Every structure is written in C-alpha cells, then in structure tokens.
UniProtKB/TrEMBL annotation:
Database matches in InterPro entries: Homeodomain-like_sf (IPR009057), HTH-type_TetR-like_transc_reg (IPR050109), HTH_TetR (IPR001647), Repressor_TetR_C (IPR004111), Tet_transcr_reg_TetR-rel_C_sf (IPR036271)
Name of the molecule in the record: TetR family transcriptional regulator
Record-annotated HTH tetR-type domain positions: 20-80
Gene source species: Salipiger mangrovisoli
PANTHER family with a match to the protein in the record: HTH-TYPE TRANSCRIPTIONAL REGULATOR RUTR, TRANSCRIPTIONAL REGULATORY PROTEIN
Length: 254
C-alpha cells in the first residue's frame, strides 16, 4: 500500500491542495500577510507558500491576476457595510452610519487601507454592494444623473480618502530616526516667519496630516473625520433641498 504525500511529511500542492481551500481563506491569509509586512512587501509567491499551494491555485480561486485578489480584499473590507445601516432611517443618517462603519472596518486592518483609497488596482465589480448602498441613499435624497455621480465621488473621495491618508504608513525605520527628525524640525519652527503655526503647535504637532510622525492607528483622528462627515452630508442635504420636484425624504420602514 503506497504512502500519501501527507504521510511522507510533504505539503500537498496544486489541485490536491486546492481541495478544501476557499476564496475566503485566501483573502484572509493575504490580509494577514499585508498586516504583518505592509502592502509594498506583499508577495503572491509567499502567500502561496503559506497556504501550501502554487500561485496558479490562488488565481483559480480569485481570478487571473494579482489585481483580482486585491479587489477581493477590498470587497471583504466593505462587504458588510449595508448591514450597518438602519433601514428605517432617512438617507442622510444611513450614509453617516455606513461611513462610520467603513472607517471602523478599515481600522481593523490599517495596512490594507491603501487598497481602498489609493490603488486603482483594487477597483472591480467585487465592490458592487458597497457602491449600491451609497447610490441608493443618494438617489433617495433626489440625486440623479451627473449630480448622483458627483455626490458619490465627493463622499468616496472625501471620506475614504481621509481614512487612507489617516492610516498612511510612515517610512520604514527601525531606529525611530525619522520620527525624531520630524519632531526636531517642528521644535525649530520660527515664530517670526510662521507665527500662527508656531502658536498652534501644541494642538497641531503629531495631530494633523502634514505635521506628524504617527498615523491614525496610533493617534485619534475621530473628531476630524466627524467634521468632514457632517460637512459632506449636510452639504449634500442642502443641495438636495434645492432640487426641483423633490420634497424632504421620509424615513423608510422595513
């Protein structure tokens, strides 16, 4: 009676290894690798080795290119956002709920954030549920045609862009030299040439996007995100109120 690959202590590969391996397991392993090493260091070959399969098996499950895997990761992060909203709430409140849930979801995997805001390679139909959720709320507010498109881009660009920038990784530096240089440069700001910046440094240092050495995984940007969310949604509501042949939306009842 012959011995199997597992009995000989070998890791099964190819078609044999793909049995029982799911798309969700591949995505989870990819997210874990990105969280451990960063997006720039992501390696499909290393992912395949960690799962005991060939890269071809991963492509068979998620698509024919690395971009398909990235799209699947993005869709996983945004996949449950529709459930975050109260179906009985008006459209503006549902958008608030969805975008708060979006930020919370991305904060669970901060090193994946560039895929959701700064990488076109993660675009794809895998995120259709997320797109539909936002469009339904905007359409209920009276947006259509070009106005619907522009409102969608304002929300996604502003709010998703905020989260991507909030969680942007700093330069790889094991000794903290970069952080020390930034802090030192801020301590040397001249009150004569930049009086307002110098006066506000206690509130600004390491707390605004362009004067910091830690990202939003370490320092809270909750208040800034809330301000942007209110500005965008209140602004869209004011714009919607001026649409012809529309009246204030009533709450939906499920």
């Amino acid at each position: 009676m012959g011995t199997t690959e597992s009995q000989r202590g070998r890791t099964p590969r190819g078609r044999a290894a793909s049995i029982g391996l799911s798309r969700a397991q591949i995505v989870a392993a990819a997210v874990a690798q990105i969280e451990a090493k960063g997006l720039a260091a992501f390696s499909l070959r290393e992912l395949a080795r960690s799962l005991g399969v060939s890269p071809a098996v991963i492509y068979w499950h998620v698509g024919g290119a690395k971009e398909d895997l990235f799209a699947a990761i993005a869709a996983t992060i945004t996949g449950g956002l529709a459930e975050a909203q109260d179906p009985s709430a008006i459209w503006t409140e549902r958008l608030r709920q969805v975008f708060h849930a979006y930020r919370a979801s991305v904060h669970c995997h901060p090193k994946v954030s560039p895929l959701l805001g700064a990488q076109m390679k993660s675009n794809g139909v895998a995120s259709l549920d997320w797109i539909e959720t936002v469009l339904v709320a905007l359409a209920e507010g009276g947006f259509e045609g070009d106005a619907l498109r522009d409102a969608f881009n304002a929300l996604i660009g502003g709010l998703c862009g905020f989260v991507t920038m909030e969680l942007a990784p700093g330069p790889a530096s094991e000794d903290g030299a970069w952080e020390e240089r930034v802090a030192q440069r801020m301590a040397e700001v001249d009150p004569k040439t930049h009086p307002l910046t110098h006066a506000a440094l206690p509130q600004l240092a390491n707390r605004i996007f362009v004067l910091r050495w830690q990202n939003g995984a370490q320092v809270s940007y909750d208040d800034g995100y809330a301000v942007l969310l209110d500005l965008l949604i209140d602004g869209l509501a004011a714009r919607a109120a001026n649409f012809p042949n529309t009246s204030p939306a009533e709450p939906k009842h499920g």
